[in-house]
Amino acid sequence: MIKIVVDCFGGDHSPKANVDGALAALSKTPDLFIVLTGDESLLREELDGKEYDASRLEIVHAPDIIGCDERPIDAVRLKRDSSMIKAVRMLRDMDDVHAIVSTGSTGALVAAALTRVGRLRGVIRPAFCPVLPTMDGGIVGICDSGANVEVTPDHLRQFAIMASLYMERTYGVKSPRVALLNVGKEAEKGDEIRQVAYKLLEETPEINFVGNMESRDLLSGSYDVVVCDGFSGNVLVKTTEGTALELLKKLKKDIYSRTLYKIGALLMKRMFADEKEFMNYQNYGGSVLLGTSKTVVKGHGSSKAKAVEKCIEQAYRMETSGLGPAIEEVILKYEHYQD
Amino acid sequence: MIKIVVDCFGGDHSPKANVDGALAALSKTPDLFIVLTGDESLLREELDGKEYDASRLEIVHAPDIIGCDERPIDAVRLKRDSSMIKAVRMLRDMDDVHAIVSTGSTGALVAAALTRVGRLRGVIRPAFCPVLPTMDGGIVGICDSGANVEVTPDHLRQFAIMASLYMERTYGVKSPRVALLNVGKEAEKGDEIRQVAYKLLEETPEINFVGNMESRDLLSGSYDVVVCDGFSGNVLVKTTEGTALELLKKLKKDIYSRTLYKIGALLMKRMFADEKEFMNYQNYGGSVLLGTSKTVVKGHGSSKAKAVEKCIEQAYRMETSGLGPAIEEVILKYEHYQD
């Protein structure tokens, strides 16, 4: 049985999206056990009248909520009765709890995970790895996308190892093509961190390093993993999402500007719906934190039930695929680790 | 008379695009004088049969070409007879030559400009400032987009001052809204460089600093200038261009997948052409290098005649708007400068 805690508050559509997503995942996966954290009476209200296997669902009362504007470290220290911190503490204290899924404050979740859950052996810095769709129908993982705004070449090598194993084991990508985000393709491009990292990545036979990637090629389908510092990775992911959304908005506005366009768009209704669905991050699950000793998945703040369900599936796959031990095995070849 | 040197080789469509762009600019601007550098016989061939005011056009023979794969510093040192280096040396040596426009190697142009042309008084690091269209019909300048992969808070303040004056004087943007690219809106976000830069920008009354910007809001129309290090700025600009292009490609492919969509698209033909034009960087000129003692404009390698013409217009406006002296005046308030 895989036991996953779902933090049911802190998202834009909480607790409904979190509860409905949890129930959907529960019904599809027989060996899944879900713990919901949050205000018990609100959660009971949300569950009321819905069908589910009550023997695989538990509620843990946690009346407090962490807001997005709270300082992460303060929230972790002071809001022990919040749905998020209670969930993280269950992860820390209970051997049979495997993973957490949260749609709450990213900063608080990272701070709580790092200080309360700890890291896999040998991992210096856990890193976020969201996944985006590529134009050929595939996906690409971006690691790190924001947990570490400053990095060293060694960190970047670890991100590459972790993300490569993640794409392989969780998404079934064979021998993932790993690229280093840089300002040009040539090995000597970028600052010293990038230049040294390039060499380290070349000297790591456990990954399939294919060289530098310029950001304009992210969606081309030529890469499965992009390694970067959390600052530029954050820019990469959010610029892609932002540009896609702004363009769709503009198209919609322009379509409404003329009757002829409206008729044309009517014929293409299905296609536009498909494009929108294709670019909807809710279909691609959350951003996992790689390198923590237990699985942490962060869903988008605006996640609806479907996105929460995807996040739970992701956490389940990570736990059942032996990802953690696989990461430790490779990382420990390169890092000295003392228990 | 404003004298501008146009480096006619090194671009994908050189020399035709460069020559045609130069002639178009020449015909529209009576007090413009153009110098073309490159292989004289090839340039004469290109000019053959075309109408132009020969009294305002000069050819300077430079038979060599710098390739995109050459090491910038070597190219600057060794290829003295190349169209680019000869153009840069004219800029350095001749008082009446005001600006250079090139579609050749970015690295070589930056290296040549910094070592041969020099900087405005007080400027620590010149920086690139390309301009992108926003979804409300405006534009946004991004500075730096690649000349400096590592920066200090002082550099970022200088980028802000230079880019703000550039948008104001060259594009007529009143009191440009300047933002700092960061991983979140709050003042304490990002690394130490960003945190210190935030304070410096707040303490600079000559600019209208509006706070941090997350990359997803770049095209929203809420900002006129975005300040960033050259690494993340490069990611920002190229991700935007890349995402827009990939999406248009996908739309086109999907349209061709069904007859119904093809008919719909036919009704919307004009609209799609407008969208394509809207996203065509050729309409927005080149990336100017701010902070050099004379004007340097870098056109996209794939520039066609229209884009080259826009670059020349840009260089002309920069020279006639008193941008350089205006930058020096503000920068020197904050930097000690010794001649």
Summarize this, please?
Chain A contains twelve helices and twelve strands.
What does this structure look like?
Two copies of one chain form a homodimer. With 339 residues, chain A is an alpha/beta fold. In chain A, 45% of the residues lie in helices and 16% in strands. Chain A contains twelve helices and twelve strands. Chain A has helices at residues 16-28, 40-47, 72-78, 83-93, 106-117, 153-171, 192-202, 230-255, 259-267, 269-278, 305-320, 323-334; strands at residues 2-7, 32-38, 57-61, 99-102, 127-129, 131-133, 139-143, 177-181, 208-213, 225-227, 287-290, 295-298. A seven-stranded mixed beta sheet of chain A has the order 3-2-1-4-12-11-5, sandwiched between helices. The radius of gyration of chain A is 21 Å and the shape is globular. Chains A and B meet through helix 8, helix 9 and helix 10 of A and helix 8, helix 9 and helix 10 of B.
Key terms for this structure?
12 strands, homodimer, 5-stranded mixed β-sheet, 339 residues, 7-stranded mixed β-sheet
Secondary structure layout:
2 copies of one chain form a homodimer.
Chain A lengths: L1 E6 L8 H13 L3 E7 L1 H8 L9 E5 L10 H7 L4 H11 L5 E4 L3 H12 L9 E3 L1 E3 L5 E5 L9 H19 L5 E5 L10 H11 L5 E6 L11 E3 L2 H26 L3 H9 L1 H10 L8 E4 L4 E4 L6 H16 L2 H12 L5
Parallel strand pairs in A: 1-2, 1-4, 2-3, 4-12, 7-10, 8-9, 8-10
Antiparallel strand pairs in A: 5-11, 6-7, 11-12
Helix pairs in contact in A: 1-11, 3-5, 4-5, 6-7, 6-12
